[in-house]
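SAMPLE LOG
Freezer: B-3
Tube label: C17
Construct: single chain, 729 aa
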Amino acid sequence: MRTTFALVPILAATLFLGLVPHAVRAQEEGDEASRLKRRLERYVGRLGTQDTTEFWNIVLQIEALGEPVVPLIRAELAKADLAEPAKLGLAKAMASLEAFDEALVAMMELAEKSENRALRLSAIEMLGSFGDDDLEEKLAKLLKDTFDPPLQIALAKALFQACGSTTGTMTLKGLLKSDDVRIQYDAALALAELGDIDSARLVLTTLEREPTDRGRLAHSYLRQEATLKRMEKMLLGGQPVKPVPGRTESDLLEELIALIQKYHVDGDKFDRARLVALAAKGMASGLDLHSVYWTGAEWKDFLKQITGDYAGIGAYVGIRGGYFTIIAPIYSGPAYKAGLRSRDRIVEVEGWKTYQQPTDEVIKRIQGTPGTSVKLKVYRDGWEDAREWTVVRQQIAVKSVAADRLAGDIGYFRISQFGPDTDKELAAAIKAMVGETDPKPLKGLIIDLRDNGGGYMQIAKKFADLFLTEGKLIVYSEGRSELGKRQDLFSSAETLYPTGELVLLIDGGSASASEIVAGALKHHGRATLVGQRSFGKGTVQQPLQLDTDKEARLKLTIARYYLPDGKSIDTLYDAAGKLIHRGGIAPDVAVAPRRLEGWKNEEFAKLWDKRALRDYVDKLYPDNKALFAELAVDDHRETTRYPGFDAWFASLGTKADKHDVREWVRSLVREKVADERGAEFVHDLLEDRQLQRAVLVMCEKLKVDPKAFDAFKPFADAFPAGAKEPEDH
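STRUCTURE (predicted):
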């Protein structure tokens, strides 16, 4: 019995001890799962309340929990009430933990449906990082249906990164031609990120002059490429690659043509003449920013454009969100008279769809013989469907001078370009403002050359004549060939305003002829320059006829322009994209335009996407036309002048303050009023801080107190004495 008794406890103990580890393990595993679940829930709760940096730090902490957290994340993603930021963070964590299917589904849902633009951009970027070929169809459809350029750029990048789709890079190359320079810059940086520096080079070269993070990024991409080229040269021992014996450069061109026509997916659509023309275009564009090869048809189109008269519908146009859009109608033109208005989208021309087509190609189809009609399909915000429109083409004379008399007997004149009659238009505008029967003398002139890209040099010379006494050197040009031999331009006796006070406004959009005028008037002490450093384009181009094709032209840079002091205004770079000479004209008084902080741009985009701003203006405008006409000129920056503004503002739920929103609303009001009255606003003294500074400089010259004039009081103290601003790039 003892033996039996002794054995029983031992056996029982063995059995008991064998059971303990399993029970403990189960309990511990349960506790660990509970702890993991609680930690994840805490992280999820914090994802919606953190700033950007902390947000992604939390996502990293979730990823650090490892593979065991994947089922718990999956359960969280299945919750219908999960906040979108949390969904984004959890999707990123799932992808990092290689649970790609659920992650990509969540990312795509956010990319397609989220109303938060910043969140959509993040989701699209992650699709590019974690996606694969299976996403191509969905991403391509999303890109096609998206009209917001930043989203288009993000989708185009994702398409290429995830799927290798050339639709992405082709879209980005198309956006390089956008009328909005910000879109050009973003598209160029995207292409550079994808490794296509060549396509983006010209835009990147311009962007790298900008003293911002994106400017420094562009500079970094260009330097990186230059370094790679130097390394390639070193690997080759510094020796050029020797051509294959018996082969010539023309053989290379022939081989390329043959390969393209044989193997390119659309090679059968490119005949030999078109491929040779493309080669010529590439050769010319590689020389500098301004040399170009024109086919015969392109040369004829150019001749039509530079006359200032063309047969069209009469509208300033551009690409907005991929759509060919009327920025503003020319109020004397047929489009306006037919009922077309600002922001109308022309979606078809004679049945041909314009979406994501090059601006030049759309314009070419709209223009035609005077007196003939063109059928357009037009969409306007608020319409359910696009509507058919027929407009009769007419010769459009585009005026280059707009004028207004400001308080204190100051004349304001905006010069958009140096066209065939700009000097005559300005002289007539000055005389009309002074008056003949009842003269009202002008004490000073403000000439606005901002965003004036230049034009005819002889007209610019005549323009300068109006303000200089006879015999002053305005500019000279000089090159290295007989075509570019030195030529001097001196002022003539056609002086109209030789001694009165003069202020010129310039900025980064002032180029070529407008820079020469500004530089000459500054050099001779005739004008004070206000604004920002001009663009820096000071070269002479001459179209050369070709013996091989009498219709085509090679517009070639043959010389540079030099100011009277011998300085070139042209910005120069070496082959690696390094700045050699900083061109342009520096202002005497530097002042930057008003720019919104990044987060305010985001708030504006949200309100725009929700149509909140447009709906407010559209709803109130019909019953408040007289009031809105006053507000368009000057609303005294008072929100109370807008019907129901404060209550409406409170309903928006925006982080922007009411004065920002007031300004955005007023810009739409001005657009409406201009369309209603059929006349553009010459300026916006209430919000244009560069013009305000020019006015104050003029008041100082005239020795008058700006506070003596009601129109100048709001900004009389806006520029403290001694305050400095950068002159830009």
